[in-house]
């Protein structure tokens, strides 16, 4: 073992005459540990939040939508067969969409109506797996049944079997004027996917009923696709646009909610910068610790220099001390942050119960629970940044120690 490392480790373990230096060392170590742990937990929560939002959105929406720029898609069966032949496409489903208002008694809610075929729809979305009452198969052509989101059903105070009225903005022209188109529907099921926009504003009806209601004949609004990998949606949409008729347009899920995911990514980067500043503040404490330690060890430094130690060796001794503080603090933060990030689903409910309020409101944050996903690359970057900052913090005090004049240091000893 090189004597610089040996002396540096010995200084780290030794009991110091100045207890304040030991206290500052512990504070520095704790600050680095807290900064690293907080950064790991926050990045893991942001990763989990992004993935959970994406999963819940894709559980309701499609990976890719193909529609005709001229309006309704008449030959949707032929288009579906061609799209299904694309290697990365797993399933296809036609749809009709439109806006309407649901009323029952004195309650009224604006909704997004989606006409579907229950079988194909179950292969494209996850709604069938999140039914709370009834089923998608209860939607029969000509029976005018409707499946509502759970929050929407609660807002309208309706249950399976209840009747409600669907009002279409497109009216019928009569001698008395324009009369809104009305149709009575029966609630045949409710779903709860955990995504606020779908649970509070989506109503599913049979495709044939939607075609009749919106008077589009046998045409549909478009065809929805499910892919093997949602992250390839943009390239698949581009491939469809190149292969298909010029009137067909393909839109992937990244274009449906671009601002949401962009905002999450920007928040993640800003939080990373803020947390790195916290680690930097802790690293400044390392500078204070080493400056006071150099002052306290002036006589030892002078003796080492008179025995033949080079300035570079003295510098390495104090770098070892600062590095030990950084390494221990980083390891403690790594262990604590990893343990907390992996148990967020246990810690957060316990805190919510103890404090008596919920951290995330479903209406504001789209999802009611705080998710977490630990990414190995994020953890590695956090630990690397912490170690680098700790090492940089040791350079100036160590350089000052190496420049110490032995004669000046020993004059008053």
Lay out the secondary structure.
Layout: H1 3-13, H2 19-60, E1 64-68, H3 76-84, E2 89-104, E3 107-116, H4 118-124, E4 131-134, E5 145-149, H5 150-156, E6 163-174, E7 177-191, H6 196-201, E8 202-206, H7 207-213, E9 222-227, H8 233-243, E10 248-252, H9 253-256, H10 258-296, H11 298-306, H12 311-342, H13 344-355, H14 362-365, H15 376-402, H16 406-410
Parallel strand pairs: 3-8, 5-7
Antiparallel strand pairs: 1-9, 1-10, 2-3, 2-6, 2-9, 4-7, 5-8, 6-7
Helix pairs in contact: 1-12, 2-10, 2-12, 2-15, 10-12, 10-15, 12-15
Structure characterization notes:
The chain is an alpha+beta fold and 413 residues long. The chain folds into two domains: 3-56 and 260-410, no CATH class; 71-246, no CATH class. Helix content is 56%, strand content 20%. The protein has a six-stranded mixed β-barrel with strand order 2-3-8-5-7-6, surrounded by four helices. The radius of gyration is 32 Å and the shape is elongated. The relative contact order is 0.19. The model has no long low-confidence stretch (mean pLDDT 81).
